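[Q] Does anyone have a clean structure-token version of this?
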Amino acid sequence: MRKSLAVILVSSAVLLSSGAMAQDLDPASDTTRYLFDSALYMAAGLGALLFVFAYGLRDVGFARTQNAPAVCLRTIGLISVTAFAFWIIGYNLIHMIEKGGLLGPFEAWLPDDVDPLSLGYASGVHWFFQMGVAAMPAAIVASALSERIKLWPFLLFTACLAGLAHPIIAAWVWGGGYFADAWRVYDFGGAGPIHVAGGAAALAGAIVVGPRPGRYQTDAIRPAPTTALPLAAFAAGLVVISLLLVFGGLSGSFASVEAAVTLGAILTNSVLAVGGAVLAGIMLTQIVYKRAGLMTAINAAVAGLVAISADPASPALWQAAMIGAVGGVIVTVAPPFLDRFRIDDAGFVVPTHFLCGLWGLIIVPWSNPDAWFPGQLLGAAAIAAFSFVLSLLVWTALKYSIGVRQAPLEEPAMAE
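[A] Here you go.
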């Protein structure tokens, strides 16, 4: 009895002392914070590039075999064009804007590491991360226009999107611009600058470029043949991982206890949002079509993260699952409506990114008292309208100048 009592007392003392030590953690030094935050931006930048390549891999799985090389070429090309456009003009449009302004200066970015500790991170890794984020909307557009867009018109459009449209929108909500300052628009993870902007640009491109050959030749919609849905499913998993890394970079820090706790909340809410979206999509297709749909599950996995992206830190766990579930419903029911209007979205990015991004922006005040519905509604409408109108003008100019549609490729001969 005495031995048991002694064990209990010792165990209690150890637990109490462990709790005290957890509460008395010393803050990180300036050097430690600098190194950790720089490493965070580097990892998040790699995550953004992983998103671009994973989306390209997903499009290869969705596309026909003879179009796969063109998908790969566009994916590599858009990163190269984005790097130059974001260096020459994009970065300073975001981060040099005056508080409450609409535009930053049209100046090239230059490294600034004269006083690194005051900045808090290496300027180069921050640029690298932001450049990767700027490439993500172009990957979304490439997916929607797969199998029919020429390379050079697409690369010219990418320069406009990554160097102008995305940075201006990002400055409005991330750089302390007009909508963040005057309307308290809250967008933590890029629902507006990445997903709504990319989805609206993709919608404009799909309208101007037109559908894939043979897609709407008769009253019945011709199903699009695919190369390998299992490849697309694997790529969707990489997209989910990449977006989680980007969320980490957008959190801004990983060098304090509070930052680590916030990042933990972001990851758990994001995973539950993905789970809610996938389950909602699978159950809905089972009810409507009497079978679970793999294509729907692939799109729902991404849609869940897009739906939670505006604020993945604030919701309770059940709220995160519900937000993601609505995203799963959106990507299940929206594609037939686009087909009804003969809008051929090859990568299903309009429902996945545009509509789910709008949903994610609008629902933020449900769990975050710092945001308010009028501001979120106005910000979402402004982002969607600006990206759509600017993209429509650029696509139209390209169509009637150098042309945008590639010649149809012949189906490869079957092996004997």
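[Q] Thanks! Anything notable?
[A] Residues 48 and 132 are 5 Å apart (CA to CA).
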